[in-house]
Amino acid sequence: MKQILLVEDEEVLRMLAADLLTDEGYKVDEAADGAEALKRLRERDYDLVLLDYMLPFYSGVEVLEHFRRECPEKRPKVIMLSAKTQPADRERALAAGADLFIEKPYRPFEFVKKVNEVLHETDGSPLSP
Questions:
Q1: Which residues contact 91 (CB under 8 A, 6 or more apart)?
Q2: Beta-ladder partners of 7
Q3: Which is it for strands 27-31 and 3-7: parallel, antiparallel or unpaired?
Q4: Strand 48-52's sheet: what is its strand order?
Q5: SS3 for 48?
Q6: Which of 24, 56, 59, 98 would bridge 33 by S-S if both were Cys, CB 3.0 to 4.6 A apart?
Q7: What is the pLDDT of residues 71-128, one digit of tens each?
Q8: How do strand 27-31 and strand 48-52 relate by DSSP bridges?
Q9: What is the pTM of this model?
Q10: DSSP 73
């Protein structure tokens, strides 16, 4: 079973995303801020991290930069989620190591599809058309 860390400070969005992912058969851990996300990332290995851009304590980009520096041996896939839609924000997230950038609000079906595609890339399975 694939392990996902979902980092979202808005409780309703976190609950909805967690429900969508558990319905798909994923094991989901949750964090509500950047500090909690870093703690969980240090303690456990994840296949995927869904990381909100704007978080309390550390932004999603800062979390990713700290994590990549502190734990270079751990290489989960990372999808950055953000209401920030400027090209510079997207570029900063990708430069920090995000594999994909998804703008909020997102459609649940598209969100799940992108998660499945990214996770299938990691296990060698073919991507859906």
A1: none
A2: 31, 51
A3: parallel
A4: 27-31, 3-7, 48-52, 77-82, 100-103
A5: strand
A6: 56
A7: 999 999 999 999 988 999 999 999 999 999 999 999 999 999 999 999 987 554 444 4
A8: unpaired
A9: 0.92
A10: T
